Amino acid sequence: MPEEVKKKRLTDVGPHDYHDYLPPMVKKNYGKWAYHEIMDSGTMVHVAENGDKLYTVRVGSPRLVSGSFVRDLCDIADKYCGGYLRFTTRNSAEFLFEDEKNIVPLKKDLEKLGLNIGGIGNNVANIVHTQGWVHCHTSASDASGVVKSVMDELYEYFVEEKLPSKVRVAFACCLNMCGSVGSSDIAIVGTHRRPPKINQERLLNLCEIPSTIASCPTNSVRPDVTADGKQTVRVVQETCVFCGSCYTVCPAMPIADPLTDGVSIWVGGKVSNARTKPTFSKLVIPFIPNEPPRWPKVTEAVKTIINAYKEGGRPGERVSEWVDRIGWPKFFKITGFEFTKYHVDDFRLAESMMNYSAYARL
Ligand code: SF4
Ligand code: SF4
Asked: Structure pTM?
């Protein structure tokens, strides 16, 4: 840890000021960067107005990492980067340094650890993902297993620039979408397909009735009374959207079901304001069953989308822009995905309720 950070009194209350953790070069040129250039698919350089240069080498990470993995990264950061290291929003690790001569030995050390260098430029970046079966009670699917299987297939697009533009892939293991799936070019979303099952005996002992009712975004959890007159809840099956919020508040309402859970695939989200406004991803495959350990149908679907985009996208065109240009009917035709009733968005308040751009709406 840098000396100036050690000297400050650190507490465990609230986040630390991120300025404390900026590399000196970044702090010095804060707000004064002139441009950046991509040197190769794993290396870039930022140039400041005064000519200062900051080099970045990016490696993928599996996101759920061990202590020894982090220690290995820290050793390399100590050796080449003055002890500074950053993780990107897509869980890549980035090494930032000022001396260009460090690029080659740094990469050699990273390769010795078996780390993959890439994800910068017109590539598939590291897949951002959520907890999955490892760590979250609401998950409809695994996260790490699906992401590993998909990324094994997309490896060539991580280490080499072969695509019309950058492609962001994301995975969330339920509709709460802790990963940025709504705004990624390709998104895989864990999907439950049945309402929670209530264990009345446990519910009476474990759960607070008002907060359980309040947890439901569609008002599907309603007050009820048991045969012997005790306060409980029931679920209106027709309006439940299988989000799992009630299970988070009340552990007596499990929603996971090994027979009916799986994933859906979404396409065309982006956060960027460049050329076109930010977009939400749209449903293209409503359901694929869970197929651990290698998830063949999911990997095949993602590869089909990538291949179609690689063939048809124009240079610089994001997936959403490519689909907008060719039209969704053609997208379904060239990918071979079936168009079903589940693709018809009939949420009548969407236009007035959903925020479609990065601009604040008051
Ligand atoms: S997306 Fe859902 S299941 Fe996955 S970590 Fe978030 S809340 Fe849990
Ligand atoms: S799963 Fe979601 S929509 Fe269904 S009852 Fe629970 S909170 Fe409501």
From this structure: 0.90
